[in-house]
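re: the backbone from monday

yeah here it is again, tokenized this time
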């Protein structure tokens, strides 16, 4: 077992548990995404590990990047995002299957992180939110590719254009949540599922997964470049300033198309 301030890694019974430790919201930055990528890459080469579970401590799975004072994107949004996306792209090159245990909310980039996994486990109270349009800018973290691939183009367009919340029950119906558990049983269910994958022939599992995900990393990397360009432009608008301010103040935004 390795233990850090922001991420802990435990390997047991063929499964590597990667646990984010920034409760309650588990906001990420380049450092945390890098820790996840590096740990997953290391476990790719560990014969004791045949499947991964990505989880987090606290109320929420991940509320994305922090736009508050002193947050990762508080200044130089474009520069910080460029560095973060370079690390995020590497997550799609991991060779070991990943199951995300999603409690509370997966919001914005946190939804992107959940969608980087092969599977997602939720309960009825889980909330999935692609809230970018409600903040005044373009989606990121490869969601332009992953979300339509998981739930289809029309459902993805609905979630991205409205920014509405989807609970665990609807997410399961859409295919965004692959397993719907009893309240609070996400991690237990994800670990059991990962152990069932770990019990299968490891060379066959990696071969099958590579076939199913062929070209995904390249498509995500291309999408990240486009997402970053669109975000860099839209972050300069008055609407983005209003969307972020309204989110921090917990009020409804008033957008003017400026």
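seq for it, each position gets an aa:
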């Amino acid at each position: 077992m390795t233990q850090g301030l922001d991420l802990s890694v435990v390997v047991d019974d063929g499964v590597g548990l990667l646990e984010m430790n920034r409760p309650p919201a588990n906001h990420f930055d380049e450092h945390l995404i890098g820790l996840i990528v590096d740990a997953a890459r290391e476990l790719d080469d560990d014969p004791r590990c045949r499947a991964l579970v990505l989880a987090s401590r606290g109320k929420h799975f991940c509320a994305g990047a922090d736009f508050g004072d002193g947050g990762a994107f508080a200044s130089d949004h474009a520069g910080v995002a460029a560095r973060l996306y370079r690390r995020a792209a590497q997550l799609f090159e991991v060779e070991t299957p990943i199951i995300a245990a999603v409690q509370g909310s997966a919001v914005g980039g946190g939804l992107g992180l959940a969608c980087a996994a092969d599977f997602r486990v939720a309960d009825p109270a889980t909330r999935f939110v692609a809230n970018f349009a409600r903040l005044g800018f373009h989606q990121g973290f490869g969601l332009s590719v992953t979300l339509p691939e998981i739930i289809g183009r029309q459902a993805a367009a609905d979630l991205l254009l409205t920014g509405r919340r989807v609970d665990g029950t609807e997410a399961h119906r859409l295919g965004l949540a692959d397993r719907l558990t009893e309240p609070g049983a996400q991690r237990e269910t994800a670990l059991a599922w990962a152990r069932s994958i770990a019990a299968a022939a490891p060379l066959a599992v990696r071969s099958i997964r590579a076939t199913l995900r062929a070209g995904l990393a390249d498509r995500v990397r291309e999408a990240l470049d486009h997402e970053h360009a669109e975000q860099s432009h839209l972050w300069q608008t008055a609407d983005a300033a209003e969307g972020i301010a309204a989110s921090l103040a917990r009020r409804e935004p008033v957008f003017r198309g400026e």
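The radius of gyration is 17 Å. DSSP finds eleven helices and ten strands in the chain.
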